[in-house]
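Shipment paperwork, digital attachment
Item: protein structure file
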Amino acid sequence: MAPAGSAKIGSPGDEKGHDPGETQRTVTIAKPFALGRFAVTFREWDACVADGGCGDTEPGDFGMGRNPRQPVILVTVEDAERYVAWLSKKTGHAYRLPSEAEWEYAARACRAPDCPYQAFWFGPIHPKAAVYDWKQSYLGSPTSAQKSATQTVDSGAPNPFGLYNMLGNVRQMTADCWNPIPPAAPSDGKALKSGDCGQRATRGGSWNDAPQDLRAAARRAALVDEPSAQIGFRVARDLEGP
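Attachment content:
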């Protein structure tokens, strides 16, 4: 669960890897919301297919193995939306993809605007902290041989909100239409539904990305109908009560 709070998202202009689309701003999450502790796995996706909720889409594993606990890859944004519709019907709760602001708020795992700024919630990046292209360095970080594959969704340590692999392993889809430089986005953390809605914003970096692409503020676009071996997703839902 991500608790209610206000926090600064985006990155300062002098951060290595900073992009103009990462303008810093404060968002207020008025109510706690549920966010999957893990990215959706092959096992969970297969359950949706078996139950008729996800059509006959049986994504491959890009040669990385199809461990039931590995994050599902090679699914599209449209596939993910079918999954959350199926999960909502199955459970009676309204599941959805998180907004960009919700995602970054949860990835930073800090609920106050005056928290010390960090590009990564765990501090300086290193190969034991996340799954990325370990051959590349960020601000002098140590390097290592790259695993060149996703790891199980419970690998590594959770962030302070109890969420695993928010940074690295697979980039994660959001509900926001793509805007290279977002206009005045909602300060309440809601998804931005204007812009290029044939693409969605993805966040978090992947097993094959440079370390700077795992920064909490980093953003990438993904076509809604194009699968990728670097992209997966996790689900969110609003919680009842105040």
